[in-house]
Amino acid sequence: MLAFRLARSLMSMPGRIFEELAQHRSRTMAAVDSLQQTLLGTRGFTLIELLVVMLVIGLLAAVALPTFLNARVSASDSLAKSLASAAQTAAESIAIDHGGGYASVTTATLKSLDPTIATVARGNEAYISRASGTASSYTLTATAVTTGDTYTIARSASGIVSRTCTVRTTAERGGCPRATTTRASPAFTW
Predict the structure, then answer these.
(1) Cβ neighbours of residue 35 under 8 Å, at least 6 residues apart?
(2) Are 18 and 11 in contact (CB under 8 A)?
(3) What digits encode the pLDDT tens for the residues 129-142?
(4) Model pTM?
């Protein structure tokens, strides 16, 4: 009987070994599948995540782009204003050299007195587009190339200096903030 039990035990042993190997194999496969799912899950972004990121970037661009463009317009107009002021100083120097008269104020005389004053359009720089004078008055106009806006400093015969501006479009008034039309008016000062 003992021999019968021993023989039966020996005969069932390969079955148990195969059963344990099968269980071990299934546990190993489950671990490999779990690891594979983890690796596949961290491999990239989902379509929803990419769309959300693109939406956020689009919103930021929608807010930042107009601000950037307005800054560019303001910089161009500020350059034209600065140039008109420099031309005004040069016009006053011309008057001092010519006994108080402004008759010789022209773009050429302004350029000869101050070589940094631009009198022709180059690239995006502002330039003095018009300069004229009489015995007791002058008019200086600077044009911002980027916007097409003009800034004028005029001295009347009575000595009153006025600053007016003309904008090309009222959508972007640049350095002429109160402009509501595209023509010069004493109300549009800078």
Answers:
(1) none
(2) no
(3) 999 999 999 999 99
(4) 0.63
